[in-house]
Amino acid sequence: MKEKLLLCLVALLLPITLCYSNPSSTEDGYSVPTDKDVLEKLDNWQDLKFGVIFHWGLYSVPGIIESWALCGEDKKWIYEERVKRGMTLEQFRQWYWALDKEFNPCSFDPEKWADIMKDAGMKYCLFTTKHHDGYCMFDTKTTDYKVTAGPFGGNPKSNVTKEVLNAFRGKDFMVGAYFSKIDWHCPYYWSPLFDAPTRRFNYDRKEHPEIFEKFVDFTTVQLEELTTDYGNIDIIWIDGGCFKGTEIGLDKILSKARTRNPGMICVDRSAGGQEENYMTPEGKIPEKQLNIPWETCEALGHWSWQPDARFKSKNTVIARLIEIVAKGGNYLLGIGPTPEGTIDDQSQKILADVGVWMRKYGKAIYNTRTTKAYNRGRVWFNADKNDKTLYALYAYKDGDGVLPEKLQWAGNIPSGKMTLVSTGQTVKYKVSDNIVTVTLPKGLPAESFALEFVKK
Questions:
Q1: Nearest-5° angle of CA 240, CA 244, CA 250?
Q2: Cβ partners under 8 Å of residue 114, min gap 6
Q3: Roughly how many angstroms between the first and final C-alpha of the chain, as a whole number?
Q4: For 81, which of 58, 67, 240, 412 is 20 to 30 Å away at the CA?
């Protein structure tokens, strides 16, 4: 108790955040994996810091929210697409299901996608193989509701999941498959025998085990296909928090899949337990540093391509990346390819600008881990794996104007010289009463930057 009181007092006195975290106290439900290969891959994944997730499917054709307008729930963000079109729920569903006859992305070039993301400094890639609408972006044998059975089916690149994973794997990305447990097109999830008012199963699984078992078999085959026929899969990122993966035997599926994909990371989102190997807060950054594996996932504009998208700026992406890394996480940025299969020009421009910054300051992002004193205002800290080399990263935000002339923080006392990561230029500083005052070099561009030093 005395120790806790002392820590609270120190945190109040110092103008810097101190956070001592462990899995049991920071995230309810997180279980440390027991598979040593998974632990090793998780450690490698934590080195990467910056990844991309692609949402691409039928919803891209009209440029609307991904899948959700099919759901009968009374939420504005769900039903507004039906209102715009003057359609009833049933009319909208029939119109949407028929979009599989229109999806024909003849400009699809996964090699170019990979080049754009690599140039942006990204290190891992997740591809949406199936969203909640049930449309499969891979050549499954379980249904004809798939890209290889539509107008794009005759194209040599029609098995788009295989093409994307191969392209990114070929450029040294860690690769993974997003997969929705929810499947509103599947007659064993939303049975035609009953109404489907919500996102959940539309029948009582205990009352109708014969229907549910068919759904389990259907989903098992799809996951086995993805983890068997598409090369080595590093991550299986399973969405749909309406039910836990264990309810459909995910533990058994993973056990078999890891014989083919050793150390494969699983993310059964929001489920907890051994099948959620890292946490995935969506669209937000945790308030405090978390010393468990986690990842903020959010979109650059919308998750999927929409013509009216408003995008995060280069400065916003970089500032959020800096904060996330200092708090112990990775940053997964969502990109929505166009219905033609291209990355839109505005996304490309922002990503290219982020890439310029990453080439200058990536040393202070990649392969780093947390340090106990990790924040003072706009300055965020992380450490090299040796825990001796520290980085102080200034998070510049839109509208800030010129950089400050000096930075100041308590703790994280340097020993020896301090340098600007981008150029190696020596930076002047002084220490007085445990306060570090840094005088920034003249002429620094108005953007985020990183300083490097060895801690005392």
A1: 105
A2: 125, 167, 168, 170, 171, 173
A3: 29
A4: 240
Distance (Å, rounded) from C-alpha 191 to C-alpha 193? 5
**For the segment 158-209, what is each residue's pLDDT rounded down to a tens digit?**
999 999 999 999 999 999 999 999 999 999 999 999 999 999 999 999 999 9
The two beta strands, 373-376 and 379-384, are antiparallel
Q: How far apart are CA 269 and CA 239, in angstroms?
A: 6
Angle at 248 between CA 244 and CA 249, to 5 degrees: 105
Looking only at the bridges linking them, the beta strands covering 174-180 and 235-239 are parallel
Kindly report the number of other CB atoms within 10 A of residue 340's CB atom: 13
Question: What's the chain's Rg over C-alpha atoms?
Answer: 24
What gap in Å lies between CA 78 and CA 69, rounded to an integer?
Answer: 5
* pTM of structure: 0.93
Query: Sign (positive/negative) of CA torsion 163, 302, 188, 280?
Result: positive
